[in-house]
């Protein structure tokens, strides 16, 4: 009995052994499905950079070969350097092999040239010729934390305005009966009730302000509260209002028409209205605003529409910089730009009954209006230089088109970032010049055409910028950062408006600017971080580092890489 059982067990074990041996033999002989992940087929690599050898099969049995360099090593995910030439890279696993063809080039770096590298691992060693280098870092759709480079061996500023979102879909346009039949119908002291948003508490009911006409011109009309003491203790100086009106008449409207096109006229009265209201001063949130809801009929969708093209502006206060005549004038240029561009981009298509008319993204809409201020000659007095100075000292905290480091969208920092980029593009396209006999008159050299095409087309947002410029926006952004990193303190001084004497460009030119009325100064220096500083970048932001004397190689370390982050190394 015992012998019989033993015999059966032995026979069973023999069967198992035969089955196991047979199965192993089949596994060894069958083709293994694996692929080379890196290097990429027909990509260009450089002889001074490490090349990762990896497959989707994690095994130490993988043998790597180059037809030029011979045996490279075994395993998965290790790195090698290869000499210049065309390499056929083979990954052999048992009786199987895969191969890719790659090109390895010698990186030639001469003085003033920059090479770019993709930040794609937590530690990278850059082997570059001895010399002095200017490193930079720019994030596109990605981010990186605790990035550093090592050598081996606030006064509260008011926002110009606040952005009011308006979904144009389904809005009702003004009926013919609501549109004024005759032009130039306003007279001094005419009265009208306005609904004005509470800029501090926007969820509250709007102010109802009874205003009267205090000035009528061919293309605009100025309103002021009939009984201003009902809304504020602020008393406006009539001379200050007259100075603002003079700026509107002689500088702002003529230049904006040249820059962007005709003024909106949705109520067919031939004029844009400006309501100066001290409620904005009292609330201390903005300096003025444009509300596109006013372009539509007053109904359940737009219950507080004023059914006219109107801007809301704080009253001038001599003792406060944010409410000075020049700052108020810059705000008018800013808000009128919003109105013109909304009329061209969105409202003109609403009139054509387009179901989903385009509405410009906030970052670009605000950048165009801030750029408009500078091109009207209010670069310093309007606050753009102040905003730029703040941004330059907080580069890594603000994205040009995304949320900032705190998750906030529309901030002074992002506005400055976006305006600097748009200004760079504007001048790359040729910018403007001035009439030598009349410095108030601007003449297009290519920049205005770029802006007008940006507004007139249906596209919106980041990618649209590149579509109009003629090169992908990501490439343009990296090009700007590369130029900044290369030139640094050698950047040319910004051009000054021959009429106002204020800068019309927005760029870190390492110069000091002063607002004479207040004595306040700003230095537009591009900060250079210490090489070993741990810095984190959010999407579409950048920093530059101090120069380094390279004797062997630069060690790049970081954590938590997401998306595209590009390093820049410029040889001095």
TrEMBL record:
Protein name in UniProt: Peptidase M30
Recorded superkingdom: Bacteria
């Amino acid at each position: 009995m015992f012998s019989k059982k033993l015999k059966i067990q032995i026979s069973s074990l023999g069967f198992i052994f035969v089955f196991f041996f047979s199965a192993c033999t089949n596994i060894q002989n069958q083709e293994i499905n694996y692929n080379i992940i890196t290097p990429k087929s027909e990509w260009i690599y450089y002889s001074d950079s490490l090349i990762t050898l990896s497959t989707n099969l994690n095994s130490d049995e993988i043998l790597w070969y180059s037809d030029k360099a011979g045996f490279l090593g075994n395993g998965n995910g290790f790195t090698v350097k290869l000499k210049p030439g065309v390499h056929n890279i083979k990954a052999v696993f048992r009786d199987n092999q895969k191969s890719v063809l790659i090109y390895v080039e010698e990186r030639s770096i001469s003085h003033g040239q920059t090479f770019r590298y993709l930040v794609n691992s937590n530690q990278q060693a850059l082997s570059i010729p001895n010399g002095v280098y200017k490193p930079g870092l720019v994030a596109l759709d990605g981010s990186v934390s605790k990035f550093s480079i090592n050598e081996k061996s606030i006064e509260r500023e008011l926002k110009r305005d606040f952005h009011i979102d308006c979904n144009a879909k389904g809005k009702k346009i003004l009926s013919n009966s609501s549109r004024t039949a005759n032009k130039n119908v306003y007279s001094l002291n005419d009265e009208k009730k306005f609904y004005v948003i509470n800029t501090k508490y926007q969820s509250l009911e709007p102010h109802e302000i009874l205003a009267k006409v205090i000035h009528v011109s061919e293309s605009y009309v100025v309103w002021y509260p009939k009984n201003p003491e009902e809304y504020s203790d602020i008393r406006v100086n009539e001379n200050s209002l007259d100075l603002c009106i003079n700026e509107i008449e002689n500088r702002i409207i003529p230049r904006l028409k040249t820059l962007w096109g005709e003024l909106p006229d949705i109520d067919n009265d031939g004029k844009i209205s400006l309501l100066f209201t001290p409620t904005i001063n009292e609330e201390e949130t903005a300096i003025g605003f444009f509300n596109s809801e006013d372009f539509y009929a007053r109904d359940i969708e737009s219950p507080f529409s004023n059914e006219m093209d109107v801007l809301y502006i704080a009253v001038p206060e001599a003792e406060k910089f944010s409410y000075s005549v020049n700052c108020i004038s810059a705000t008018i240029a800013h808000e009128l730009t919003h109105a013109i561009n909304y009329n061209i981009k969105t409202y003109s298509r609403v009139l054509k009954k387009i179901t989903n008319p385009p509405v410009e993204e906030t970052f670009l809409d605000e950048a165009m209006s801030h750029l408009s201020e500078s091109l009207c000659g209010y670069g310093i007095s309007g606050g753009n230089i102040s905003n730029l100075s703040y941004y330059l000292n907080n580069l890594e905290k603000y994205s040009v088109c995304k949320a900032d480091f705190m998750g906030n969208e529309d901030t002074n920092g992002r506005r400055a970032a976006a305006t600097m980029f748009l200004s760079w593009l504007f001048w790359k396209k040729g910018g403007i010049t001035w009439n030598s006999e009349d410095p108030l008159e601007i003449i297009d050299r290519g920049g205005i055409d770029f802006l007008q095409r940006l507004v007139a087309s249906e596209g919106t947002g980041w990618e649209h910028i590149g579509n109009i410029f003629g090169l992908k926006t990501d490439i343009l952004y990296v090009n700007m950062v590369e130029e900044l990193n290369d030139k640094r303190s050698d950047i040319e001084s910004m051009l000054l408006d021959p009429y106002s004497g204020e800068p019309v460009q927005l760029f870190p030119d390492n110069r000091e600017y002063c607002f004479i009325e207040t004595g306040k100064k700003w230095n537009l220096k591009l900060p250079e971080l210490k090489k070993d500083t741990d810095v984190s970048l959010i999407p579409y932001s950048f920093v530059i580092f101090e120069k380094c004397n390279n004797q062997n190689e630069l060690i790049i370390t970081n954590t938590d890489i997401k998306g595209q982050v590009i390093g820049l190394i410029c040889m001095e």
